[in-house]
């Protein structure tokens, strides 16, 4: 495993200010604003979040090296619990149903949209959130006997949880925190199962909780599975930037390449979210 050297905040902020990164982020923020005020979310935001959870889980399944279609996962998500017996599911389906549960439970705990009375919203503490997410993600695999319970909600890498906590809670813009935690968990197996999916989900949570995507309908992982070479190249640049041998300029450039692709992925996720809102509004998915 390549050594990951923590970078100082000044380097991360310099990367975030690169012109290409600023442009990509501005495009993403506009797409997210268009999504937030989409007519389809006025009354049907809960249905839109439910569909986004299915789309995001499908993308995460691909990110984890398994394959399932949106239609197949949608059908699985609507089955009665008795029809989800481990013997009835293949390994990809067992992983997919767990990833969907994590996305659905994440969305279910987000602040409601367009509420007439604003209810107090208290985000879960990070350790409790991570434990709940990982239990959900692994639930289908555990039920099928494909992994042991000792692999669930326990880090495989000593010190990994402290790094995640520092990234998520850093006094940095939400975009930087989200992009960093997503990349870190993709290249570092903090969890022996679904580490990349955990990173993407925590990044999504950061952007939702900190008001970047209040809709919770953007499908942020989709572009990472449709433009795999671009995603992998940007991630490799980020990884090299965090190597002890990287000089300051190389570190800024490498991190910036990942930040740019990450922002492009969020923009694409917002566009997919707009499509979901349109179809929900029309009553057709």
From TrEMBL:
Domain of life: Bacteria
Official protein name in the record: Fido domain-containing protein
Native species: Schaalia canis
């Amino acid at each position: 495993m390549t050594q990951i050297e923590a970078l100082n905040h000044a380097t991360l902020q310099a990367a975030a200010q690169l012109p290409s990164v600023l442009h990509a982020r501005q495009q993403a923020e506009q797409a997210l604003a268009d999504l937030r005020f989409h007519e389809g979310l006025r009354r049907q935001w809960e249905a839109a979040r439910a569909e986004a959870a299915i789309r995001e889980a499908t993308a995460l399944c691909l990110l984890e090296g398994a394959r399932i279609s949106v239609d197949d996962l949608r059908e699985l998500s609507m089955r009665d619990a008795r029809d989800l017996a481990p013997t009835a599911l293949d390994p990809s389906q067992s992983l997919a149903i767990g990833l969907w549960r994590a996305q659905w439970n994440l969305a279910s705990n987000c602040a409601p949209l367009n509420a007439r009375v604003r209810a107090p919203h208290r985000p879960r503490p990070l350790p409790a959130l991570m434990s709940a997410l990982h239990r959900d993600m692994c639930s289908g695999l555990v039920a099928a006997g494909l992994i042991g319970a000792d692999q669930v909600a326990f880090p495989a890498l000593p010190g990994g949880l402290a790094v995640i906590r520092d990234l998520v809670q850093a006094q940095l813009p939400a975009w930087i925190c989200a992009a960093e935690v997503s990349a870190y968990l993709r290249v570092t197996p903090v969890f022996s199962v679904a580490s990349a999916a955990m990173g993407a989900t925590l990044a999504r949570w950061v952007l939702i909780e900190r008001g970047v995507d209040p809709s919770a309908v953007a499908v942020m992982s989709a572009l990472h599975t449709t433009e795999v070479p671009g995603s992998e190249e940007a991630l490799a640049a980020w990884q090299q930037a965090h190597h002890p041998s990287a000089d300051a300029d190389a570190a800024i450039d490498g991190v910036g390449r990942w930040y740019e692709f990450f922002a492009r992925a969020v923009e694409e996720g917002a566009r997919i979210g707009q499509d979901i809102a349109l179809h929900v509004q029309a009553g057709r998915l």
